[in-house]
Design goal:
This protein has 194 residues and is α+β, with helices and mostly antiparallel strands. The chain contains 7 helices and 4 strands, in the order H-H-E-H-H-E-H-E-H-H-E.
């Protein structure tokens, strides 16, 4: 099988990491891959904020836990937010799964293609990481809570431009344990018209 397609088909979300930090050369390769993602009109307006400082990561985690505490849920609330709110009640909760590296991808909130461009860059991050035997997982919480005042203040302190919104984040690190098996792919998701 073509190695690129094999990389696509074998990548899984990893939620358990060793404490060992990824190498600077690996991080540089992953970020370079992210910067080569396609973007609307070749705007390249994304911003990549890499957090490897444990104290800063813990501060972000505390803010996420507070945000979940204040989150009001009803029958229309996205099920992952409901699950996150319940999980965050546990003092051991960690939204980035204790990964040693968190890459926050943000983009200009006035740019209509911000989420699409940032999502493609995140996909490049995940695939590049997997090709280097580094585990990864998409992280949503900073997108959900990024505009809350305390969180926004923290994000600004990390160098995320004021006029940028968080579009997603990637937890990165060496996997602790076995890689999860793929769940079956859903049927009925493809239509071909010739």
């Amino acid at each position: 099988m073509n190695e690129i397609i094999e990389n696509l088909l074998t990548r899984r979300s990893i939620r358990t990491y060793t404490k060992e930090q990824i190498l600077d050369t690996e991080l540089a390769a992953i970020i370079e891959a992210a910067k080569y993602a396609p973007s609307g009109g070749n705007s390249q307006s994304w911003h990549f904020t890499i957090v490897q400082n444990e104290e800063k990561l813990n501060q972000l985690n505390s803010l996420v836990r507070e945000s979940f505490k204040d989150l009001i849920v009803d029958d229309r609330t996205y099920r992952s937010k409901i699950a996150g709110k319940k999980a965050a009640e546990n003092s051991k909760y960690n939204f980035y799964y204790h990964a040693p590296t968190l890459i926050i991808v943000s983009n200009d909130r006035e740019y209509s293609n911000a989420m699409a461009d940032s999502s493609v860059a995140l996909q490049n991050i995940f695939l590049a990481a997997h090709s280097l035997q580094i585990g990864s997982c998409w992280i949503n919480q900073l997108t959900w809570f990024g505009d809350e005042p305390a969180m926004r203040e923290m994000l600004t302190s990390l160098g995320i431009p004021e006029n940028y919104k968080v579009c997603g984040a990637a937890a990165l690190g060496y996997a602790a344990g076995n890689q999860p098996k793929a769940t079956p792919r859903k049927e009925g998701t493809v239509t071909i018209i010739k």
